[in-house]
């Protein structure tokens, strides 16, 4: 059995530039009044990723392949395939644009040639790494950089002397209205990443071949809870440092001064370090998102899930190209990243409902099917996100 690190890969995938940017904006604009949305997101991520990992281990197949096997009706199977392509393709294209934009913001702080130009360069780098098939080595290095950034955020939080009373007071008075709904959806979309459900199922299916299923599921669950919980803690700390630097202060946060929140520890180097962290987080996620799309689409159409295969390569290349085009269209950088996270929040129910259906109807799961607790928790997650989406649409009129 290969050593499984899928839980850490999932955590690293959602701690991208979208998470850093979204958490920073949330803390700067709303303080800790939206902590409830983050706590919900982390809990929901643990619930849904546990289902995806359990599915991969118990069946030895990814989520997309399992979805097609729900029905033998060729029309329904084709419909499932098309829905997978639509949900994952659209979601990943939006997410990829946010990843590339975030990394481009970081690089543009060092060499100002424009975020659109950097997006093209970064897209090319991501494509070359995936084409080589050796992306995991590069990804590991970048994850280390992201962890280093997280350490600085932790040090900054305590060195700056946080106002714990104000934080708890704001956390105890949650907000949800027309002015916060976009941010709530963005926090959910940047944490409960739909493509991670496909990625996690595929990775565990490959990594636990031949293992005792009960033991493998227990080990995977323990790892995922720890890794996702740590990722949530990082997000919370980013929100806290931004709150101290910008909330109810004269200065407002934008792409040029996000790194100010690190000044208590890093001084004049704060902006540079923050930029390097955005680049590392962005490049890591810009590799993971198209990879997950390839697994999902190839599984949906029964194509070989081989990284050297033509279909596999064509799919991730299409996602990268689409992400580059969107990132280079001239949108305001932070707006582009926020849009990507909100789009994921709206697409999440589609994928989550698919996951719930297959976790109850797949005969191969046997004793590892969803129990009452998993179904109730999953239904609550889906129901709440759907209600938020409806509220968002209602607020537009």
Rough shape? globular
Please indicate the percent range of residues in DSSP E strands (runs of 2 or more): under 5%
Tally of individual helices? 16
Spell out the CATH superfamily. Amino acid/polyamine transporter I
What's the CATH class, please?
Mainly Alpha
Uncertain residue segments: none
Explain the overall architecture.
It is a multi-pass membrane protein. InterPro entries: NRAMP_fam. It is found in: Membrane. By secondary structure, the chain is mainly alpha-helical. The protein has a single domain (6-395), classed as Amino acid/polyamine transporter I. The chain is built from 16 helices and no strands. The protein has helices at residues 6-14, 17-30, 35-59, 63-68, 74-108, 115-132, 135-159, 164-171, 181-191, 194-207, 213-246, 263-266, 270-300, 310-327, 333-361, 372-395. The longest helix is centred in the first third of the chain and has 35 residues, at 74-108. The radius of gyration is 20 Å and the shape is globular.
Keywords:
globular, 397 residues, Amino acid/polyamine transporter I, mainly alpha, single chain, 77% helix, 16 helices
What's a quick, concise take on this entry?
With 397 residues, the chain is mainly α.
């Amino acid at each position: 059995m290969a050593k499984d690190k899928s839980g850490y890969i999932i955590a690293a995938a959602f701690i991208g530039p979208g998470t850093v940017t979204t958490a920073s904006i949330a803390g700067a604009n709303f303080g800790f009044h939206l902590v409830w949305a983050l706590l919900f997101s982390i809990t929901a991520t643990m619930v849904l990723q546990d289902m995806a990992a359990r599915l991969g281990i118990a069946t030895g197949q990814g989520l997309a392949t399992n979805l097609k096997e729900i029905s033998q009706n060729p029309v329904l199977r084709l419909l499932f395939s098309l829905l997978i392509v639509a949900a994952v393709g659209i979601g990943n294209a939006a997410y990829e644009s946010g990843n590339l934009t975030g990394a481009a913001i970081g690089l543009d702080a060092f060499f100002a040639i424009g975020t659109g130009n950097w997006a093209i360069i970064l897209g090319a780098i991501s494509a070359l790494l995936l084409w080589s098939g050796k992306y995991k080595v590069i990804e590991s290095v970048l994850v280390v950089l992201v962890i280093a950034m997280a350490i600085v955020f932790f040090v900054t939080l305590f060195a700056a002397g946080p106002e714990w009373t104000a934080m708890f007071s704001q956390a105890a008075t949650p907000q949800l209205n027309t002015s916060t709904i976009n941010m709530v959806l963005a926090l959910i979309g940047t944490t409960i990443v739909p493509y991670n459900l496909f990625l996690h199922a595929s990775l565990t299916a490959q990594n636990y071949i031949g293992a005792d299923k009960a033991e493998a599921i227990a080990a995977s669950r323990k790892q995922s809870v720890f890794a996702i919980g740590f990722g949530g803690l990082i997000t919370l700390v980013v929100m806290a440092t931004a709150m101290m630097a910008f909330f109810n202060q004269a200065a407002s946060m934008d792409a040029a001064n996000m790194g100010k929140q690190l000044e208590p520890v890093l001084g004049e180097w704060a902006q540079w370090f923050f930029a390097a962290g955005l680049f590392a987080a962005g490049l890591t996620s810009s590799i993971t998102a198209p990879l997950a799309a390839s697994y999902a689409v190839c599984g949906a159409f029964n194509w070989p899930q081989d990284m050297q295969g033509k279909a596999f390569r064509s799919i991730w290349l299409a996602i990268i190209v689409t992400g580059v085009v969107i990132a280079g269209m001239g949108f305001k950088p932070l707006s582009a990243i926020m849009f990507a996270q909100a789009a994921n929040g709206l697409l999440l129910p589609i994928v989550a409902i698919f996951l719930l259906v297959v976790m109850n109807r797949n005969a191969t799961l046997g004793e590892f099917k969803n129990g009452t607790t998993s179904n109730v928790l999953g239904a609550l997650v889906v129901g709440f996100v759907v209600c938020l989406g409806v509220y968002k649409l209602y607020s537009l009129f």
